[in-house]
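Request from the bench team (R.T.):
"We need a structural guess for the complex before ordering more zinc ion. Sequence and SMILES attached. Just send the tokens back."

Command: build protein-zinc ion structure.
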Amino acid sequence: MERAIYVGIDLGGTAIKAGICDADGRLIHTAECPTPVKEGAEAVVQRIAELARQLVEASPYHWDQVAGVGAGIPGFLDMEEGHVKHSVNLGWEDVPVKQWLEANLGKSVKIDNDANAAALGEAWGGAGAGIPNVVCYTLGTGVGGGIIVKRRLIQGFSGMAGEIGHIPVVPDDHAIRCGCGKYGCLETVSSATGMVHMAEAALKVGLSSSLSVLANITAKDVVEHAVAGDPIALNIVSIAAGYIGKSMAILSVVVNPQRFIIGGGVAQAGEFLLNLIDRHYRENALHTAQDGVEIVPASLGNNAGVVGAAGLHLFG
Ligand SMILES: [Zn+2]
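Reply to R.T.: structure attached below.
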């Protein structure tokens, strides 16, 4: 019998990415096209189906070998039903993606949110390959994540498992309001947005920093100035890393992962940030829960979402 392949779709507000993976999580072939968001949900789903077929046609495989199609989608989803309940990025309300794609493609379809898909991608074919218990952090505009226990992606009762950006880690007297409406979420301090916010607040009260010469501060600037020795920037990066370490200490006694994987734009700051996170994690975590635990950078970059979506049939 010819070997099975899996098609993964990473649906974003600007682009649809598709990829073929083999059963070992190796990404073999990719394709990409713009997302026709303005044409509505049906047009977008139609475009996904076309891209999936074109991808397989242009590869050395044929359609019969496709054992399943998975899609990572930004928003709140009903994974069981395969519905997108609400997506700000796509402007969608109650879209039956699974049903539409299955009718079009004649293949079994699974969907999950984009953060979970990216986490599964890293766990399966990236920095967590071969490790059954993994937690992934994506440090970008927000803080996303995904939890894999015994090689299964954990979704929870209503799909909210792995929303680690909303673990309330900041004490009340320092907590600011999160985009979710609550106070003190990890995302308010450890995302790119959170770090820039802290930098702007420090400059506003007149603290002296090498950041003050910049017109528009980015999280990358904050890390670079911290590495160069600016005390204000270093303090901000330490706060961001400190709360990530604290959240990891919490997760260590909840799901006890062997490996934490750190990805996303902010993580490109590299070893400096990773070492700080590691130090804060070791300070906070129960000794027996941190023994043998590693904190490593993500390895798939922008392909994590496609690989994870393809893996939903095996591990979702
Ligand atoms: Zn929140």
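Two things stood out. The domain at 129-299 is CATH 3.30.420.40 (Nucleotidyltransferase; domain 5). The first strand starts at residue 5 and ends at 11.
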